[in-house]
């Protein structure tokens, strides 16, 4: 069985404005809903995607992926469609640096020093991704397939920190699965 690997994030600890904003949203959400909310979300997420330990090689990338899922995809309650991100947009007096997000599966069409062109494999749409300060696209090559979040500021899209790059042998399996499933919430490991 081919397993996905987590992209190496050589800039864990480096701070971009988007990184700082993600932290602000996390603190705001915990302040509003309590720390138990994020603990339950973390237990649920890693219960479905595999346990995580601080000495895991890809610990930081997996945590970033969880935090993005928590902020942008996880409803605040079972009866609500609101997420921490949408609640922050509507209720926080702080400025929101992120105007939108996209959680999907992407194929790299072109990689240059400051720009990636990818295809959203669920929507079959091309997207141009800009490089953030202190971010490199080295090692990302044409044909790579990854899943993760794109964060939007105006007309610009940026990569989130937690990306999952799928190995080349898995690409045929992914293509076959895409023919039968166009639901981006299926990106997480099934229970």
Give an account of the 3D structure.
This protein is an alpha+beta fold. It has helices at about 15-35, 35-50, 60-70, 85-90, 170-180; strands at about 5, 100-110, 115-120, 125-130, 145-155, 155-160, 165. Strands 1, 2, 3, 4, 5, 6 and 7 form a 7-stranded antiparallel sheet that branches. The two termini are about 15 Å apart.
SSE blueprint and pairings:
Layout: E1 5-6, H1 17-33, H2 35-49, H3 59-72, H4 84-91, E2 100-111, E3 115-120, E4 125-130, E5 145-153, E6 156-159, E7 164-166, H5 171-180
Antiparallel strand pairs: 1-7, 2-3, 2-5, 3-4, 5-6, 5-7
The radius of gyration computed from the alpha-carbon positions, rounded to a whole number of angstroms, is 16 Å
Largest sheet: 7 strands, antiparallel
What is the distance, rounded to the nearest whole angstrom, between the alpha carbons of the first and last residues?
17 Å
List low-confidence stretches: 1-14
Percent range for helical residues? 25-40%
Brief rundown of the structure:
The chain is an alpha+beta fold and 191 residues long. The protein is built from 5 helices and 7 strands; from the N terminus they run E-H-H-H-H-E-E-E-E-E-E-H. The longest helix is centred in the first third of the chain and has 17 residues, at 17-33.
